[in-house]
Fold this sequence. Notes:
By secondary structure, this protein is an alpha+beta fold. The chain is built from 2 helices and 8 strands; from the N terminus they run E-E-E-H-E-H-E-E-E-E. The chain is globular, with a radius of gyration of 28 Å.
Amino acid sequence: MRFLVLHVDRFRSEITQKGRSPLREPFQERVTEFGEGLLVLVSVEKGDEVAPEEVAERAAAELADLAARVGARGVLLHSFAHLFAELARPEDAVPLLDLTVARLRERNLQAQRTPFGWFNTLELAAKGHPLSRVARQIRPNPGSRDPEPPSDPRAPASRPPDDGSGPAAAPRDLRPQEGAPSYVAGEHPGASSTSHRVSRGGASAPLRAGSTESGPRGIADYAPEASP
Length: 228
């Protein structure tokens, strides 16, 4: 998840037309108005779906900490697909946004979000202090995956394939049999002297230019100077 946070005096958005997303949430009001607080322009990234609980919890913790530092009580999440991220599928993104809102409310913040999947007009008045514009990236820790739901105890247990190592497997007799031909290395009929090698390689994603890494592993953040 990536987000750009603006500490605003006011924000207003109005739905104008369908977005490019195949998923569009129904809405009752075209206009969303928000007073003083944190406006969060957010993108859910591909890979966040493997641990949505972790991503939502850490995102909420970051936003709650920033809200406390600037004295804000309201937080508005606005889906924003222009943060140079590889986007998650809409059906994965929307539940994660809802989960983040729920975690923020558990921290006694007045959290809400705008409808997903629409183009909007945006009007805002941002404050001009050093923490009025803050960016964050939250990624699941390597190897993280939310726990799977408990299995149905009535379902039949799966049986692992028999690889010959179980107690029922009969030992194999590897001694040469009487009268059987024997060969030395390189003399087996049809043997080839050609060898084959398999190489495996991996690549690590480079750190984005201009980013820094601080705090828990996987969180990059910066707080740019307020523009005049």
